[in-house]
Please model this.
Amino acid sequence: MHLRIINNTSLNENVNYKLIHNIYNVLTSNNLDSASTIVGNLSSNYAYDNEVDYLTNTYNNFQININIERLIGFKDPLIEQIFLQHNVGDANLNAIPYSVAANTSGNLSHNWFMGTSITSFNELKLFGYTSGTFSYWTSGIFAECTNLTEIDLSKFLVIPFCAFRGCSNLVRINNFNGTSVGNTALSSCTNLQYVNLSNVINIEPSSFKNCVNLDVRACGLDFTKIETTTDFTGDSAFRGCPNIGDVYLKNLRATSVFKMFAYCPSITSLTLNSRIESISGYDSGWNGYLEECANLRKVDYTQCTKVTQVGRSLCRNCPKLEIVKLPPTIEKMYDSPFGGNYLSSIKAIYLPCDTPPTIHNGNDELTDENICNKIWRVDRYSTQLKIYVPDSSVNIYKADIAWSEFADNIVPLSQYEIDYPND
Model:
């Protein structure tokens, strides 16, 4: 096809954008672009940005002059339709000019996009909406958009509450430079492969739950930089995420990390800092902090000097757990810190407490013989198990009725450095 455009000022430049639109559609929909020639100049008050860029870049002898401004050419036309249905845009043009998009503010209602079949929304960066305009109740804005594959969040400091929950085909979140990932924000985004996490310092419950293809480390997440969270933070925050590896929550300011890594098979070790006030479940409940972590080998809580008790389910059903290091401030322990199963994998319990902690079941202190084996659920007959206690307290532990059954396993704390010189 050969087309010569002769600019005629008598043409209505308010409607020339439709002519540009039709030329673009004819060429691209019929695969005529490579066999066509277009020369000349065309002026229009408006034109879709993607169409202008395509036509002028493809045909060097064709120029388009925009007198007023460009219109947003959405990769997914459904986005434009949704905005126009909610009176965002120019009704006369039946399109969304750049200036209109830039001046948008207020909340995007979750009723606009939630559960729709939108596929792409990188044009969000052109709008005035930011994470600050999403309230708690409207932040499930793109939830259950199962056809959505990518979106641009360059203006967002926060990925809001529930924003992309269940977006099972979302692959990329582009240009996110924010600091926070909200509650369930990316939960069950099972195909998500990339979102920039290099600036993230706040993680909330279920934020990455079941993101089974998202390597958070490759996306730049630095666990040592995580600072602020809500209490009960990260209930299953990283459940199912690959390549977690060794985690040191060096700067975390929360009082606990409730279930943050529960059901996380890729975590291999966890070290907590001195701000943590709780390292295990409720004293009489079954709330595992580290639960069903198939490859967890070591937990180090020695810095957690605000912690005075170990509740139920410290590390529940973690079959490869070998080393448990506790702080010197422990005063009491509750039953079954390792869950309901005997753990023959445990090799070392590091317990630097001068006075043997009391053992409890609910509100009752247990002093019966053999009770320690029953409630601790570790294999006292294992020749590899060692309980490391202060050198000066070894005989005190061996004589304590709640600990005496492990007398053969109790060794001086100084032996730990010999047994684990690289720890």
About this structure: The radius of gyration is 30 Å. The longest strand covers residues 37-48. Residues 16-29 form the longest helix (14 residues). The helical segments are 16-29, 49-58, 77-85, 98-102, 110-113, 371-376, 394-399, 414-419.
